[in-house]
RNA sequence: GGGCCAGUAGCUCAGCUGGAUAGAGCACCUCCCUUCUAAGGAGGCGGUCAAAGGUUCGAAUCCUUUCUGGCUCACCA
């Protein structure tokens, strides 16, 4: 039973005895005593004043005296305004520490029999993974681990975005300009090679677009086949001054894009792909194969994995049945051009397209299909969490609403783990402007930095080269993951390259270092036993025990909030307290064996908690660093 | 224009289901390695919690309005 629960009963009988009142326990508010005051736990007496009809400090005094008299736990009290600060006997804290030590899997919940799916990553197969994907992957992986710690069985999954016009763009550019290049012939990772041709396509497209628009606006242009909107713009361009021309040129460029030869070829290729043209299919599977090899090595470096993969090329058609079904049920409606929509205006949203006029699937169609497929594949499935950026908030709001309207009870248990964009000090990442931070490059950089830092400090005598390299990996990746996970997922965050490889302060390596020091302590021959109740606690020891008591609650909250940041912040607090303790008391210079035992016992529990917390973030901890 | 999200120290972030004098890290300035790993610790400097009203014994936290920034409202994904 928690301290608050135990005290609650005594407070209630106190109120009964003093004021002959019984009242709702919600009115009894406990909070942690702030560190500038004496005490361990504080009762806020303002709400009780309503019944006592006294000044808050009078009621505090009376209740304090009652508690001191009637509770074995309370050893002292003091009153500051409306706050009754209670000191709790050390035996209670020692007892708690022993309980924590004896609890198997302390902080983790037993299985609740529920199956949950966490979707994350879900990249396009036309370009390499970047910094944004790192936040996504680390978040998704961590949330999956946190849900497991809360008793769920979890299937980690992704939907691989392997089809569509953007995929055809890189295919086409490779075909036209690639000269048969392969990962082997160039030494490039597959995803990098394909990404290179995606960029190449864009360059060609820009070049052709510009040429086309220049031809349109030239005096000699007599192409009468252009549609009216374009002709209007051309005439506007020709009859305006230079300052207005730039804007018109941009508008024309937008229209011209789709009329360039290269874009038409790409669209043509998509059509052929949908018709399963053998040559196009072969090209598609070859390039995607390269990309998957590249991704595989990136995922490995990230330390993330998946239990089940879904491919858009396999699921994009399945949503159509749902649309047909919904149309019959009158949930959707058809417009004259054949396109199918849902009217969500009653729910405060818009009309939303669910199937194109030509009968092809849109994003929404596919996501409906994929969701339903997943519940078919896993009949026990309770819900899905989608780790997707917050620019898709509206999409998921609509998706879940549609699924609900289609009558799926499980739609209630689908959540969008919406996370904010990662900005750079220079602003937004833009692939077109080449400001994207590549995932592989960044991971390599942080590992290199960790290596340099470790070598400078030189605590690694007697370690093999393999172990050293693993350590650099652990520290570098630990720093990067911690950096991206310590911020509330919902919030947009700034990625500062300098800070991300920092090893001091609120960082992954700071926490790893505390673990390594604890590990070093525990290597002694001293045999750790349960702590005797008679031991007197140092302030820093008591504070650590108090924080350890919170661990299970933190894991629960991280689970309901889907927020690894809560775990990160908790661990940081714990490590700060531990470091302070480590500095202020000596362990092996202590003459009293019982105190040595207490301190090692405490250290071991802190170490275990650090390890478990970091595990929930996908971060490893080193025994030595 | 409608909807959603955010605005806290020079910078990056906690705190937000209302409670005491708003906290960390970085940066800057002092100290501490003949104690177990100094990737550490102790301290200092630094705030109109975007602004104005309101509710309350009490507001960074809840409500209203305004300002600023972002995302979104595609027969793109």
Automatic annotation (TrEMBL):
Residues 1-88 form the Arginyl tRNA synthetase N-terminal domain. One of its GO terms (cellular component) is cytoplasm. Gene3D superfamilies: Arginyl tRNA synthetase N-terminal domain, HUPs, Isoleucyl-tRNA Synthetase, Domain 1. Keywords: Aminoacyl-tRNA synthetase, ATP-binding, Cytoplasm, Ligase, Nucleotide-binding, Protein biosynthesis. Pfam families: DALR_1, tRNA-synt_1d. NCBIfam families: argS. This is Arginine--tRNA ligase. It comes from Putridiphycobacter roseus.
């Amino acid at each position: 039973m928690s301290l608050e629960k135990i005290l609650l009963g005594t407070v209630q009988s106190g109120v009964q005895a003093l004021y002959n009142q019984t009242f709702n326990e919600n009115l009894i508010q406990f909070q942690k005593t702030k560190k500038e005051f004496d005490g361990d736990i504080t009762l806020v007496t303002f709400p009780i004043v309503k019944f006592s009809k006294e000044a808050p400090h009078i009621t505090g005094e009376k209740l304090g005296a009652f508690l001191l008299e009637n509770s074995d736990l309370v050893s002292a009290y003091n009153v500051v305004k409306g706050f009754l600060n209670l000191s709790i006997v050390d035996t209670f804290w020692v007892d708690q520490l022993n309980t924590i030590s004896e609890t198997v899997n302390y902080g983790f919940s037993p299985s609740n029999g529920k199956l949950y799916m966490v979707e994350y990553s879900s990249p396009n197969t036309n370009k390499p993974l970047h910094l944004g994907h790192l936040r996504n992957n680390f978040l998704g992986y961590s949330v999956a681990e946190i849900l497991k710690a809360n008793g769920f069985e979890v299937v980690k999954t992704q939907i691989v975005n392997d089809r569509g016009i953007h995929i055809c763009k890189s295919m086409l550019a490779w075909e036209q300009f690639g000269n048969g290049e392969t990962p082997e012939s160039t030494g490039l990772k597959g995803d990098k090679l394909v990404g290179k041709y995606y960029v190449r396509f864009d360059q060609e497209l820009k070049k052709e677009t510009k040429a086309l628009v220049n031809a349109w606006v030239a005096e000699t242009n007599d192409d009468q086949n252009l549609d009216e909107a374009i002709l209007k713009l051309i005439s506007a361009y020709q009859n305006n001054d230079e300052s207005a021309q730039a804007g018109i040129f941009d508008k024309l460029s937008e229209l011209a894009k789709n009329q360039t030869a290269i874009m038409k070829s790409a669209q043509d290729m998509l059509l052929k792909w949908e018709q399963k043209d053998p040559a196009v299919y072969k090209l598609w599977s070859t390039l995607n194969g390269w990309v998957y090899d590249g991704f595989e090595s990136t995922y490995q470096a990230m330390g993330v994995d998946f239990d089940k993969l879904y491919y858009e090329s396999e699921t994009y058609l399945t949503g159509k049945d749902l649309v047909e079904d919904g149309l019959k049920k009158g949930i959707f409606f058809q417009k004259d051009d054949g396109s199918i929509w849902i009217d969500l205006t009653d729910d405060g949203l818009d009309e939303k397209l669910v199937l194109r006029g030509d009968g092809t699937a849109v994003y929404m169609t596919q996501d409906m299909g994929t969701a339903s497929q997943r519940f078919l594949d896993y009949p026990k499935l309770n819900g899905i969490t989608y780790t997707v950026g917050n620019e898709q908030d509206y999409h998921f709001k609509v998706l879940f609403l549609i699924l609900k309207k289609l009558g799926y009870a499980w739609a209630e248990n689908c959540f969008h783990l919406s996370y904010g964009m990662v900005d750079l000090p220079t602003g937004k990442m833009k692939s077109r402007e080449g400001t994207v931070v590549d995932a592989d490059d960044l991971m390599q950089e942080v590992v290199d930095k960790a290596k340099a830092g470790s070598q400078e400090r030189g605590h690694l005598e007697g370690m093999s080269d393999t172990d050293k390299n693993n350590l650099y990996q652990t520290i570098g990746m630990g720093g990067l993951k911690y950096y991206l996970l310590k911020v509330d997922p919902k919030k947009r965050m700034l990625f500062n390259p300098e800070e991300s490889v920092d090893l001091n302060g609120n960082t992954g390596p700071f926490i790893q270092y505390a673990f390594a020091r604890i590990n070093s302590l525990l290597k002694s021959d001293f045999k750790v036993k349960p702590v005797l109740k008679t031991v007197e606690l140092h302030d820093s020891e008591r504070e650590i025990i108090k924080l350890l008591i919170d661990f299970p609650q933190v894991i629960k909250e991280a689970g309901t909030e889907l927020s690894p940041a809560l775990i990160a912040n908790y661990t940081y607090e714990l490590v700060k307290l531990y470091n302070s303790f480590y500095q202020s008391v000596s362990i092996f210079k202590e003459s009293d064996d019982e105190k040595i035992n207490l301190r090692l016992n405490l250290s071991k529990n802190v170490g275990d908690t650090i390890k478990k917390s970091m595990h929930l973030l996908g971060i490893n901890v080193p025994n030595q660093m």
